UniProtKB/TrEMBL annotation:
InterPro entries for the chain: DUF7973
Transmembrane segments: 20-43, 55-78, 98-118, 130-148, 185-203, 215-238, 258-283
Domain DUF7973: 4-148, 215-316
Protein name as catalogued: DUF7973 domain-containing protein
Lineage, uppermost ranks: Bacteria, Pseudomonadati, Thermodesulfobacteriota, Desulfuromonadia, Desulfuromonadales
The species this protein was found in: Syntrophotalea acetylenivorans
Amino acid sequence: MGPWSVDTLLLCFGGGIVGAALGGLFSFGICGLIVLAGCFVVLNGGSEFLLMQVGLGSLFGPHTGGFAAGVAAVAYAAGVKKNLVSGSGKDILSPLIGTSWDVLLVGGVFAVIGHVLLQLLVKIPFVNSADCIALSVVGTACLARLLFLKEMPWGKAASIQSHGLLGTDKGALSWVPWMAQPSRLIVFSFGVGLLSAAMAMGTKSVLDPMVVQGTVSATGAFVVPLIFAWGIAAISLFGLQLGTGEVQKLPVWHCQAILAALAFLLFNSLIVAALVGVLAGLLQELVARVMWNHGSTHIDPPAGAIAIGTLLLNLAAKGFGG
């Protein structure tokens, strides 16, 4: 199926309805499961369909049903229908099956929008050096905030005036407050960088000979090391979804994972990957303070940081002749 075929758009729409019904974060965890399963298939010389077309593609990718649909639908439920029990447009944990049929349809429509936006972004020079899936996730979230809450990407002016653009009101506004302390964030992100780079190194060593043998494409051999730790990090967020109180205080680390893996693939250095992991964690927190803290809906800090970080790493690699 081509990206503009009626079948593809219908499948996007259906995946978006399901993703909205499940809720943003739960659908993202399922996306992570699909991605990791797809990685295992490719590592065993199998088809790339599950990884590229389902987990990262139109069927249930993060930019369609695997996250973005739920983010847009909850913004609509909170801002327009006002039938969400929590009442918060940032509530990506609650399943939306108990809201109304039109909330689910919004999820389907925004999955199609996310797919279309991705097809356009990858055609734009310079912009396509960023992670365009992540950029699409941010784009549809900004659109939902504007349409359903009448807010700009940076959020409410009154909150910014009261607390400052980068202010957190002593953590009360923070996205993931138990991660926000710089010393804790830096140490954790350094560890993630090393772990992700090690996984990228190991999977690359398996896949490179398979490319020579013709059993795996060059694209698959690049994407699997890039996304492997990201998939594990996405699955780990089921703990955030299902836990309460102290048990819920899990780190959110798929941003650090994918950017550290990309750094390893571009520069072939564990220490560079670890340092990029640290910078990714800090960039993620910066995006949260600029686009999440003062808003009434969820604009995903990891997706924003992944889009920006990928662009910067690719530009740096070109600058160094990588």
